[in-house]
Amino acid sequence: MFKVESYNANRENNYQLLLKQLKALLEGETNPVANFSNASALLNQFLDRINWVGFYLMEDGELVLGPFQGLPACVRIPVGKGVCGTAVSRMETIRVADVHQFPGHIACDAASQSEIVIPMVDNGKLVGVLDIDSPEKDRFDELDQRMLEEFVSLLMNLYKG
Question: Domain named GAF: which ranges (predicted)?
Answer without folding.
Answer: 31-160
